[in-house]
Amino acid sequence: MRSMDLFGMTFLVVWITLLIVALNLGGDAYAWNSPVIIGLLAGTGTSFIAFLVAENKASHPVVPMGLFASWKYRNVPIITVARTLLFFHLFASTFYIPVFLQVTGHSSTLAAALVIPFLFTAAIASSSTNYYASRSGVVRPPFWVGLAILPIGMGLMTTLHEGSSLGQVVAYTIICGMGFGSGTVVTMVIPQAGLPSDLLPTVTAFVSALPNLGGVLGVGIVGTVINNKFRARVSAFAPPGYPLARLNDAVAAARDPVLGPQIVAAYVAAFQLGFRILAGIAVLQLILCLGLGRVVLDAANAGEEKVELVSIAADDKGTDDKLDECRVQGPQREKNVSAV
Questions:
Q1: Which of 45, 62, 79 is the C-terminal boundary of a domain?
Q2: pTM > 0.85
C-alpha cells in the first residue's frame, strides 16, 4: 500500500471530474463567466498541477513523467493523445449521431441500429490492421492510413442535414469506422515497443485506461458545443417567454407543432458544428502521429524453432562424462522486424 500512488490517483480523478462538470454546466445551467464555472475551471487547473507534482514525487507513479520528457520514448505521449482522441471521436459519434437521426424524424430504434455499421466496420478495420502488422512487422503506415481516413469521414458527416438519406448516413459512418478501427489495437502496441521491462505494466495499464478518458471528454466537450450552439440558435427565433429548458430534450423539442421545423434546422446546424470540430481534431491527430518513432516488433517466435542437441566432451583426461547443450535456433530471418 505504501508504494501505491494514492495522491496521484486522487488528483487525477478530481481533475477529470471538475473538468467534465465545468464543461457540462458551462453555457447551460450557468454562464461561462459565472463564479461557479470559474471556480470549477480554477479547481481543474489546480488539481492538474497537483497531479503533475504528485507524479514527479511518487516512487511508483500512475503516469511516469519521465516518459513524457524523453525524445527516445516520444511514442508514449504521442499515443496517449492519439488513443484518447480516437475514443473521443468514437463516443461523441455514437452518442450524437442517433440524437441527430431522432431529431430529424427517425425512430429511436432505427437511430440506434444505424450505429451498427460504424461499429462493425471499426471491428473489421481493427482486426485487419492488427493482422497485417503482426505478419509484416509494419505498424505505422496502416495506422497513418486509418488516421487519414478519419477526418474524411468526419468531414462528410458535417454535410448531413434533415433531408439526407439513410444511405448517406450509413456510408459516412462506415468511412468513420474504417478510420477509427485501424488504431484501436496498434495504439496499445506502439507505446510498449522499446520500453524497459519494468515500465511495461505501468504503461500498459495507463494506455488501457485512455478510452474511458477519451469517451468522457468526447461526450462532454462535443455535447457542450452542440448544446450551446443549439440553444443560441433557438433563442434567436423563439418567442418571448419560450421555456429554453425544453431544449434539454432536443428530440421532444423538435416535435413542437409551431417551431418544430426551425428547431430541427437549429439542431442540424449545431450538429454540423460539432462534427466540424471533430474533423479538425482528427487532422491535428494525424499530424501529431506523423512524429511517431520507429517501432520494432519482436518476431522471435515466428516460425518453428529447432532444438539441436550438441554433445560436448567434458575434457581430454579420460573422463566419460559429457555435457548436452541445448541450443535454440530461430528462423533464418532476423528476430526483430523493424517497422518502416
A1: 62
A2: no
